[in-house]
Amino acid sequence: MVKIRRNLLLQRMSLRMVRTISFFMPLILLLASCERSTLMHSYQPLPDNSWNRTDTLLFSLPVLSEDESFGMLVGLRLTNNYPYEGLILEVAQSCQNPYSSRVDTINYKLTDESGDFTENGMNYFQYESQRLPLNLKKGQKGEIRIRHLMHREVLPGIMDVGIRVFR
User: Fold this and answer.
1) pLDDT (tens digit, 9 = 90+) per residue, 40-99?
2) In whole angstroms, how far apart are CA 10 and each of 17, 23, 45, 162?
3) Where are the beta strands (DSSP E) in 15-157?
4) In the chain, which residue ranges form alpha helices assigned H by DSSP?
5) What architecture is the 38-166 domain classified under in CATH?
6) How far apart are CA 152 and CA 12, in angstroms?
7) DSSP string, 102-120
8) Which range is least confidently modeled, 1-10, 42-51, 148-157?
9) Three-state SS for 88?
10) Buried/exposed 67-98: b ≥16 CB within 10 Å, e otherwise
11) pTM of the predicted model, to two decimals?
């Protein structure tokens, strides 16, 4: 009688253990698979899907606990109302404590020779720039400012502009 109870107790304990492991194992795998290389990924929508020449988009960088080198991509989301084959952007990086700055110009080629957008899409087209370097120091506050350098005052057809900062 005691031996049967003991066997039943062991079976219940092992069943609980299997259930507990089967519950927590996918959770542990999910947390372990999260991408930790992206520091920041943010887009800003433009009002009325147009970008005024005087509008500068501002992205604040997070303060780091140690010195690190990062890469940065500038992303665009356009509609088929965008009237040009390309787009030129100025991307200014500025940081304080210690002060550092860098200005890059990005020239996007958005269409092929026949005037069709090079990216696939139905309602909008998404583009990313080449990798830009970004060096951040411990405790440094920084920001990224993006503005267009096109001659036209208002550029229609631009939905969102964003950045992705990664290791």
Assistant:
1) 999 999 999 999 999 999 999 988 888 888 899 999 999 989 999 999 999 999 988 888
2) 10, 20, 59, 57
3) 38-45, 50-52, 57-61, 68-78, 86-96, 100-109, 125-128, 132-136, 141-148, 154-156
4) 2-33
5) Sandwich (2.60)
6) 74
7) EEEEEEEE-B-TTS-BSS-
8) 1-10
9) strand
10) eeebebbbbbbbeeebeeeebebebebebeee
11) 0.75
Read off the pLDDT of residues 7-20 as tens digits, 9 standing for 90 and up.
666 566 665 654 66
Closest alpha carbon to 132 in 99, 162, 103? 103
Q: Which residues are bridge partners to 50 per DSSP? A: 156
Q: What is the pLDDT of residue 120?
A: 73
Biggest CA pair distance of the chain: 92
- What is the model's pLDDT at position 15? 59
Task: Look up residue 71 and give its two tokens.
Answer: 């890469």
